[in-house]
Every structure is written in structure tokens, then in C-alpha cells.
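Help wanted!
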Amino acid sequence: MTEANDAVVRITGLSRRYRRTVALDGVDLEIPRGGVFGLVGENGAGKTTLIKHILGLLRAQSGSVEVFGLNPVKTPETVLGRIGYLSEDRDLPGWMRIRELMDYTAAFYPKWDSAYADKLREAFELDPAARIRNLSRGQLAKAGLLAALAHRPEFLVLDEPSSGLDVIVRRDILAAIIRTVADEGRTVLFSSHLLDEVERVADRVAMVYHGKIVVNTTMDDIRATHHRVVLRASTAPDLPGILSCQQRGSEWSLVCHGELETVQAAIHRAGWELVEMCSPSLEDIFVARAGKSASSLEDWK
Amino acid sequence: MNLHISPADGKPIYLQIVSQFKYMIAAGRLQPGEEIPPIRVLASDLLINPNTVARAYRELEMAGWLLKRQGAGTYVSDRGSPLGREECLRLLGDRVDALLTESRQMSIDFVELLAMLEERNRTLSASAEGTNHDGSQ
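Answered by r_m:
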């Protein structure tokens, strides 16, 4: 129950069902303090359900959720006061003007920084007199981001913040993430299906697949242990740790998981001709892993 | 300064920064003693994690390309250039290897490749002279 071990979030054995659908299935997850934690997975994999538990919007049916060492359902005001949150559907009251939204949000957060809020409003070019219902998608995202950032939260939670936005607004959101972690000790949880964004900003990545965490490691480790290999072989090459295999003429393009030396040794032993070997993008890895059947996913935990 | 980062490059982002700094120092686009941007400034410019930039700077510092002055920023080290040449050759070596591998895959033999290099070199030198000539007028 303490924060001594420096995890902002600690989730153990969390499961959640919606009627017959299993949304989360025995999730164990720790989000360390400081840095950017990327949460990736297909639509409906369970990312938003997981985030709702962290915010205390859903009660754990089984397992436990601790944020700053506290139960977010039992002490929502303490926990939420330290979190900045931006959801995909940015449920802001349409009748409010920007100025009113800022005053209204400020009332919830003792640590609201009015000067910083004004600075953000100018940087985001939001008109204080504009009504929320008349804002464009991009402006709406910026208004939501302003509300999430202006109390300088120690934990910033962004659920698909870039979804449906143009590249300019996406840059603003990424820059906000970077400024947040550049401040000593602050933590960002960032869920996205835009994997190149996650690859740019995340220190750690967790991949959710059918309600389970199938990968949870540092970006560096993901890079070091996944390999894209192009081989020339007459039959499908059976490399250790193989995740995906595609044939293109006499060449086979594979993504595999394991130590570089192990993979190289296996290629050498089998006598396949190595055409190319490089480190795949997060997107390549994600597609390769999502293509595997759910039963064999257990092996990679 | 003009760095370009591509997550899909197949090379870790911190290594992309490291090699681009080395190129710029070796090419003289960054001069010895010149101050380089603070970590958080470069991170916001490139939209990448500050820890990644910090790691690249640490690596460049350890290899002697950059020098950190206590509380006063990070600078291009004075001994950048002699070390630079060695590193240039190493970097070029990687590219030569890639070129050789590719030409082998395309069944272009070495003699043909060499002739092509000489030909391209002549064309490049000719056009460089051309621009110098225009510039001096």
C-alpha cells in the first residue's frame, strides 16, 4: 500500500467481464514512476477498460488496482486530483465557453495553475469566448488537453488522444507528452493505435491482446529481441521464436523473437541464404504478434 | 541543425541521433566548441522521448564527440575532428558493405561496380566544378 517501490500503478490479477465477453483476463501490470508508458492493442482488446479501472471509473470484479498506492474507487478525489486525463471521446459540456470550461475545471483541482492554463490556451489558439459545441475536432482535443494539463498532474493518462486528428494537432499532443515527462518524475500513460507515435515517445510498451497483456517491456528490449529476416530457402524456414512468415517468390520474410545470436546460429546451421536482417518497426512486431493464434500467445509472457 | 528521425528506419532512435551528430561534426556543420541544444529542446523539436535524447548525448559524450560543462550546456568537443576522420571511415565502411552486398544480389560483378563508381565520381566532380565556376562569376 505504499509508494516506496515507485510504481504509479500496480494491477494484480485484474479480470472484467461484460456479460459473456471477457474484457480483461488476469491482467498484471506495473507502471513505473517517470517516463512514458505506451499501451497498444487492437480496437476492443481491452485498453480503455484497463484505463477506466486505473481512473476508478470501474470497480475491479476480481484482482486489485492501486494508483499511488491507493484504491482509486475508494478514494477518487485523492487519486483523480493527481491525474490529468484525456479520453478519446473528450466528453466536455457543449454549452460551455472555453473560459467557463477553464474556470469550471479549475474548481476541481487545488493545484490548478491559471497562468499555465492561459499560456496553453494561447499556444493552442483557443478563443476564450468560443462555445465548446462549435469547436472543430482538433480544437476540442486541444481544449481537453488544456484541462488535463493545467493542474500539472504527476500522472497524465491519454486514451487514444490522436485518434481522428490531423497531423498538426497530433504534434501538439506529442509535444505535451514530452514536456510532461521532461519535468522530473512525472509519468505518462498513453494508449494508441498509431504505433509510430508510441515508438517515438514511449520508454515502455505493453501490448494488450484479447484482454491479456502479451508483451510488457522496454522499447529498447523490444527492439533488441525482435528481428526481421529475409531468407532464401526452398521450403518454409523454421526459425526459433518465429512470429510471422511470408513467402515472396523464393524469398521468405520472417519476424522472429529471441536473442540475435540464437537466430543467426539457427540460420547458419540450416544453411539458408540470408538476404537481409534488420530490426522491425513496432508496427511490424504488432502485426506479426496479432497474427498468431490466441493459444500460442501464452508462450511469450 | 537539421536532424531527421524515422521510427520505421530499422535503427533505434537514439542511434539515429548519434550517427547524425557524428556526420554533422565530421562534415564540419557543427564546429568544435559549438553549443548543442539542451535535451528537452531537442526532444520537443523532434517529438521524441527526452530519455532517448539523453541517451544519445551520453553515448556521444563517452565517445568523446561532445563535452558537458557542469550546469552550462553541452558542446562539440575540440578533439572532434581527428576522431571524426576515423569514424567517417568506419561509417563509410558500413555503406560500402551494404553496396557490395546489394550489387552481389543483383549479380553486378565487382569490375562493373568499380567502373560505375569512377563514372559517377567524374560526373559529380564535373558538376561541382560547374557550380564553383558559376559561383565565382
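OP: Thanks! One thing I noticed: The CA atoms of residues 83 and 232 of chain A lie 52 Å apart.
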